[in-house]
Write a structure and sequence with these properties.
Length: about 250
């Protein structure tokens, strides 16, 4: 794999997870850039320990605006002259053994494709159990994109219909291939729902940011098997094999 991969993180108070997240992609990426949105814990300190973290942009006391932040983060990543950019959240990890799968997809199977999307598996109550009903069984998102050798400064993420521009795309909407992504076999493990206290915190945060979200049915699916985004038969789970699980 000769391509330079830059990973970008948008973070706030991810001390619990960020080291584990970075460790899951260290053998994949060349560099990491970070936008920290006013963390009050040790997030920045933890990130600074990694040699591949080459830029940490810190801001604080700004109104929440995910689109603003992701476009700023994109500029930071583009300054590193990457061939490929990957976007992750601080409470996510690439599944074990991702390197070989991803590099084969990028180099052999889809060398001319620009955009890749990944299934996100949300862990729920146990380190080997993911929720798999309703929305959670089909949570795919575009996270990786290949850059042209020419100018890329025109790339941009768009504003959204949600409060605080939440649910902003991690990939520029005006990049070639945005509407025809390749579905990677690599899975992203999401730990931001693993216990009830975290789920309750995230639910309250989303309601505060986006209080009138009829489109997402007031986010009730985030804390229980309620609303149309949950499954028809209540909570459903799948078990992750032991060789693919991480310690939490």
């Amino acid at each position: 794999m000769k391509n330079k991969i830059v990973v970008m993180y948008r973070l706030k108070n991810e001390e619990r997870w960020i080291a584990k997240s970075i460790q899951s992609i260290l053998d994949i990426c060349s560099e990491i850039v970070i936008l920290d949105d006013g963390s009050t814990d040790k997030t920045v300190e933890v990130c600074s320990k990694y040699d591949k973290v080459v830029d940490i942009y810190q801001q604080k006391d700004l109104p929440f605006d995910e689109t603003r932040d992701r476009n700023l983060l994109l500029k930071l990543a583009l300054k590193r002259n990457p061939d490929i950019i990957l976007s992750l959240d601080g409470d996510e990890r690439f599944m074990p053994f991702s390197k070989e799968i991803l590099f084969e997809e990028l180099d052999v199977f889809y060398p001319h494709s620009f955009v890749f999307e990944f299934q996100t598996l949300s862990f729920w109550n146990k380190p080997n159990q993911v929720r798999y009903d309703g929305f959670y069984s089909k949570a795919w998102a575009k996270r990786l994109f290949r850059l042209k050798k020419s100018r890329n400064d025109y790339l941009r993420m768009n504003e959204t219909q949600y409060g605080g521009n939440t649910h902003c795309s991690s990939v520029p909407e005006n990049i070639p291939g945005f509407n025809a992504p390749i579905r990677s076999n690599v899975k992203i493990f999401h730990y931001g729902s693993i216990d009830s206290s975290i789920r309750e915190q995230r639910y309250k945060r989303m309601i505060n940011l986006d209080p009138n979200s009829s489109v997402l049915h007031n986010y009730v699916h985030m804390i229980d098997a309620k609303g149309p985004l949950s499954g028809k038969h209540g909570l459903e789970f799948k078990t992750i094999p032991a060789n693919l699980t991480y310690n939490v």
